[in-house]
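Entry type: protein chain
Record version: 2
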Amino acid sequence: MKLTKEFTNLEKSAVKLTVTVGKKDVQDTYNEMLSKYVKNAQIPGFRKGHVPANVLERKYGDALKADAMSEIIDKSLNEIFEKETENRPLPYQQPVMDQMPEFDTEKDLTYTVTYDVFPKVEVKEFGGITIKEPQVAIGDKELQDELKAIQERNAIVMDKKSDEAAAKSDIVTIDYSEENGENRNGYVFTIGSGEDAYGIENDVIGMKKDESKEVTKDSKKIKITVKAIKTRDLPKIDDDLAQDVSEKFKTLDDLKADITRNMEVAKKRKLAEIKSQSLLEQLVEKNPFDIPASMLAAELDGRWRMMAQQFQTSPEQLEKMITASGQTKEAMLEQWTGDSEKMLKSRIIVDSLLKARNISVTPEEIEAKYAEIAEEGGMTVEEVKKHYDDPRSKEWLIDDTKEQKLYEELYKEVKVSKGDKVSFADLFANK
């Protein structure tokens, strides 16, 4: 097909494409379309395939021209986008034609479409970027905290004797009744855990099963009846506990070594995440650009659908649920917009830098990555390779390795300094 094309950059990474298709191609396409009509048309008074072309043009002229023009536009766009690399439309948006062109078999056909393209970002500004890496030590306290958590997870829950009173750390079931207010039967919480929604745990301490009492809170009279008291029988932190946790542990020292290794791996990954997030946030701020509207809309739609999956419902039903709760879908999407834009910009900057710096990984580097994952996870290299045997999983690993390689390059070009001392628990706390 003989054609000319012209790209014009618009705001927010949109492009206007103007295409002109030569008169001969217009005529040829129209004649081919007319031949199809002649072959398949059924008109009273004529045998199928023998309707004169001029009769068809009089009867179906507008439809013929519309079909021919559609064929020309589709064919020319496909031809352009098969060869085009920089100005291809985003996969979730079709080019939009604001005005239908005039179709004349005696003239060239010129039409214009607009669409969004992947943003062209040239990351140049690195000055002034400082990354503070939190300082986290893993010592005996952290190890003991984790052992205590394992101990509690392996505790046996049993009923207290009827003459034993409720105490801190006991699990109690109560009937709760406010005078002229809320009533709740079978309410369960652990004393001292912060789970008590009514602020009555100190009043429950010392009560026995089937005992009732009245208390006053904020001028409200409340009746509490203890229906059950359970206590946790904590196992000793010893070799037996280690063996109960997993058959791969023979001694408590084995369990401690595994805990320490897992904590070190978790710390390493969290610090890497904090560093990369800080770097990308500053790069986004120093290298401003706009996100295409269709890209943001697709991201927000994806988040909405993911939320529907989490609620085990359809996107349409989720909207009804949200509306019933007094909110709107539009308001929620608006709340998500800022974070979604930051995430997309970070992703685009990473992709742009990977291409600009021609970051790649060798088979040897992937083998080293297998070994690293195996060591961190306490697995064999063969087990790790089996996990990444699926092509998509392997592709994800390669992409992730490229990103880590990029970050290591970038950290050499910015200032990385020691941050504040942070406890292991606070490192993972949501703030």
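Comment: Strands lie at 3-9, 14-21, 109-116, 130-135, 156-159, 171-178, 183-190, 212-217, 220-233, 415-421.
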